[in-house]
Amino acid sequence: NGIGYICVGNVVMDLLAVHLHFSDVVFTTLGALFNIGCIWLPLGKIATEKWGAARTQSNFWLLRNFAAVVMGSCAIWGYFGHPYIACAFLLGGAFIFYGCRSAGSVMTTALVGNITRENERGKLLAFASMAQNIITAIVFIAMTFVLLQVEKLGAGQAIWALFGIILFGAFCGVLSAVCLRNIDESDAIMKAAKKPWANSIWTAPSWR
Q1: What is the pLDDT of residues 98-115, one digit of tens each?
Q2: CB-side exposure of 18: number of CA atoms within 13 Å?
Q3: How many CB atoms lie within 10 A of CB 172?
Q4: What is the 3-state secondary structure of the chain?
Q5: Least enclosed by CB within 10 Å: which of 53, 81, 162, 200?
Q6: What is the mean pLDDT of the chain?
């Protein structure tokens, strides 16, 4: 999932916008969509009530990677001279992408707590953070090398390399979503998700 997310995340979105010569308004909108996507958070809670945390996150990861392919297809529209359609696909795909990211992450912490012992959680989170940082560095170095080599083939070729990177990232993301579905969790998370939102807010420890 880490590899997949890096290959379809905000850096690649910005590079697509650069190569398609979009305006500053598009760049600003892309940056804002990361936070605007948080309006999908309630969908994650509602879905968890029915499917549980692992399956909910898996389903939204699948949708997120589908949205990434839609977003990446802006390269095709832009290359063949349809900038407005390309912009619509980029922004529309990015909105769904970030929305699914938000909805899928609602119960991540609860899922980690559910499948680990108390003395294991710190180690797991630390290892996950370390692995993410290492993978991010490696993937960015590899992407830089690929784009430099593609640029030597001629102007306009980098857009196809970026599209290929997105397709590879979406493939990795789908694989991780399929693996996530196999996590065996208890029904405690589903029961917690069914509690009314107001009750959850007012009984939170931070309010005491």
Answers
A1: 999 999 988 888 888 888
A2: 8
A3: 20
A4: CHHHHHHHCHHHHHHHHHHCCCCHHHHHHHHHHHHHHHHHHHHHHHHHHHHCHHHHHHHHHHHHHHHHHHHHCHHHHHHCCCHHHHHHHHHHHHHHHHHHHHHHCCCHHHHHHHHCCHHHHHHHHHHHHHHHHHHHHHHHHHHHHHHHHHHCCCCCCHHHHHHHHHHHHHHHHHHHHHHHCCCCCCCHHHHHHCCCHHHHHHCCHHHC
A5: 81
A6: 88
Residue 30 pLDDT more than 80? yes
pTM for this prediction = 0.87
Residue 92, token pair as written in the block? 């529309």
Scan for tokens 């996507």, then name that residue: 37
> What is the C-alpha end-to-end distance of the chain, expressed in Å?
37
Q: Which two tokens stand for residue 11?
A: 């850096």
Considering all CA atoms of the chain, what is the largest pairwise distance in Å, rounded to the nearest integer?
Answer: 63
**Stronger pLDDT, 208 or 107, i.e. the higher one:** 107
User: Of 169, 23, 34, 46, which is closest to residue 96 (Cα–Cα)?
Assistant: 34
The pLDDT value given to residue 186: 83
